[in-house]
């Protein structure tokens, strides 16, 4: 008689990714709604990395880095688009937004957090993907 009927040795019994996806989602939402920049960015990074990890583990994607690039691109486009829509693309104004985000209402600092998280995911995914290509070329 089998101890665990229906389960074979080829499948893992549990995956850690759903817990991290949920935690990243909650942290990002709390950070964005409450307006805490670092928690919003950290939560979005955890959420994006965990979604990429779960896609890789379930074999929906071949590499982790393409998912990070896609998720980061979406976040960066949304964040940069909202910031540009609200304050424009003048570099002086953008420096003021970074220096004193509270002076620009509620939407701009939150959009800036989304944009920063997207840019970090793009940088991480692109850097590692470039390093892997460089190592494979040798």
Number of helices: 5
Radius of gyration, in angstroms, nearest whole number: 19 Å
The tally of strands reads 0
Average of pLDDT: 86
Alpha-beta content class: mainly alpha
The rough form would be described as: flat
Uncertain parts: none
Helix proportion: over 70%
Can you write the helix and strand succession as a string?
HHHHH
Cα(first) to Cα(last) distance is 53 Å
Sketch the major β-sheet. Answer: none
Portion in strands: under 5%
Keywords:
mainly alpha
Structural commentary:
- With 138 residues, the chain is an all-alpha fold.
- The chain contains five helices and no strands.
- Helix 2 packs antiparallel against helix 3.
- The chain is flat.
- The N and C termini lie far apart (53 Å).
- The mean pLDDT is 86.
Summarize the structure.
This protein has helices spanning 17-34, 37-57, 64-87, 91-99, 107-137.
Question: What order do the helices and strands come in, and which of them pair?
Answer:
Layout: H1 17-34, H2 37-57, H3 64-87, H4 91-99, H5 107-137
Helix pairs in contact: 1-2, 2-3, 2-5, 3-5
